[in-house]
Amino acid sequence: MFRAKKSLGQNFLIDKNVISRIVSTVSITDNEILEVGPGTGNLTKEILKNNPSKMYLVEKDNFLAESLRETVDERVMIFNEDILKFDTTSLSKNKIVVFGNLPYNISTEILSTWIVNLKNNYWFSDLILMFQKEVADRIIAQFNTSAYGRLSILANWRLNVNKICDISPESFSPRPKIQSTLIHFTPKKNFANIKDPLNLEKITRVFFNHRRKMLKKPFNQIFNGNTDLLDKFNLDLNLRPQNLDFDTYYKLTIEYERLRS
């Protein structure tokens, strides 16, 4: 009998109603599908019932990867690899639909890595990903809320973000101690022209390093007290980082890149 490994953040989805809800989020028929962390294959089997043209599974656990080979058909390619080191862009020339019950301990790293490494052309059409609810709340947060911060700003730069539903611990085995949330991401056609997304990460890191402090210190740290920018962006340095909307952070990043060029 297989036991879930805490080191890999394994919590296997067993609730058939939830699995059906996930599968119904997008059209699967004749599309290419990537599933991250398929585990025991419960979601995998339901996806295959909907007739994808191809399916790619990335599973880090050696035992689970071998077990999956015994239960899938010729449409499926299994990669026994770490998703953080896996080149998703090399899978296909077609855009892929991605499903993932992501390990809680690396879920933000996976999402952030995919966004930072995006080129002008997207390698996926949809991301249907599950997160710890607390992390999901940060991803979907709007400005002027306590959960708003670096993760929501980064995610909303290149992606449309739509919460599907919350999922209770009883839907998994073993049961996690927290709720989960399913989020559907789709590519944005129009987005801020930031040359290097690492600059967006830097700007938001500096600004949100002391999220309860006023904007004056991080602004001066980044822009050396450039008062012309205050008028250009109509900035009030008495505000706090959470009071600036998405577009302001994108514009500040573009300005930062312009000043450094």
Structural class assignment: alpha/beta
CATH level-four homologous superfamily name of the largest domain: Vaccinia Virus protein VP39
Q: Low-confidence parts, pLDDT < 50 over ≥5 residues?
A: 4-9
Instruction: Give the number of domains.
Output: 2
CA-to-CA gap between the ends?
58 Å
Q: Assign the CATH class of the largest domain.
A: Alpha Beta
Rg (CA only): 20 Å
The CATH architecture designation of the largest domain is 3-Layer(aba) Sandwich
User: What is the percent of helical residues?
Assistant: 25-40%
Order of helices and strands: EHEHEHEEHEHHEEEHHHH
Broad shape: elongated
Largest sheet: 7 strands, mixed
Number of beta-strand segments: 9
CATH topology of the largest domain, which one? Rossmann fold
Mean pLDDT: 93
Determine the strand fraction and express it as a percent band. 15-25%
Widest sheet: strand order? 4-3-2-5-6-9-7
If helices are DSSP runs of H or I spanning 4 or more residues, what is the number of helices? 10
Question: Could you please describe the fold and organization of this structure?
Answer:
The strands form two sheets. A seven-stranded mixed β-sheet has the order 4-3-2-5-6-9-7, with helices on both faces. The chain is elongated and about 65 Å long. Helices cover 35% and strands 19% of the residues. α1 crosses α2 and α7 runs antiparallel to α8. It has 261 residues and is α/β, with parallel strands linked by helices. 34% of the residues are buried. The longest helix is centred in the last third of the chain and has 15 residues. The chain folds into two domains: 182 residues, 3-Layer(aba) Sandwich (Rossmann fold), CATH 3.40.50.150; 64 residues, rRNA adenine dimethylase, C-terminal domain (Helicase, Ruva Protein, domain 3, Orthogonal Bundle). The protein has ten helices and nine strands. α2 links the parallel β2 and β3.
